């Protein structure tokens, strides 16, 4: 499902209705979403600062667009995972090798300009290739 039909306009309309419901009923969450939609909208708007969030380049989970595009998910997920696992695992590496790996992954990332291999899975994998060497820095 490249586009779930849940557009930013529909999101704004739903957020406005939730806000009106909360004002009318003493701050209780909207029964349609239980207040979850407002939290997800806050997270979605925060992620706009670091990602374009185009629907055709994003993953969908149950017709809900993921907060980041496929490439940004591939970049930030390894960084986030390395943040928690780095103190637990002792890995010896040289920054020279990380720079070379990062440079090669950025060169391979140029392959997405070819339309045939430009899919969300490829974007995610190439983003992960960028995210793993970036994490230790």
Notes on the protein architecture:
It is a single chain. With 137 residues, this protein is mainly alpha-helical. It is built from 5 helices and 2 strands, in the order H-H-E-E-H-H-H. It has helices at residues 8-24, 36-47, 70-85, 95-109, 120-134, and strands at 58-61, 64-69. Helix 3 runs parallel beside helix 5 (120-134) and helix 4 packs antiparallel against helix 5. The longest helix is centred in the first third of the chain and has 17 residues, at 8-24. It is elongated and about 60 Å long. The chain starts with 7 loop residues before the first helix and ends with a helix.
List the main descriptive attributes of the protein structure presented here.
137 residues; mainly alpha; two-stranded antiparallel sheet; 5 helices
In short:
55% of the residues lie in helices and 7% in strands. With 137 residues, it is mainly alpha-helical. Strands 1-2 form a two-stranded antiparallel sheet.
Q: What fraction of residues sit in β-strands?
A: 5-15%
Rounded to an integer in angstroms, the radius of gyration calculated over CA atoms is 19 Å
> Residue share in helices?
40-55%
The H-and-E topology, N to C, reads as: HHEEHHH
User: Based on helices, strands and strand pairing, what is the structural class?
Assistant: mainly alpha
For the terminal residues, how far apart are their CA atoms?
Answer: 36 Å
- Unreliable stretches, pLDDT < 50, 5 or more residues? none
Structure summary, number of beta strands = 2
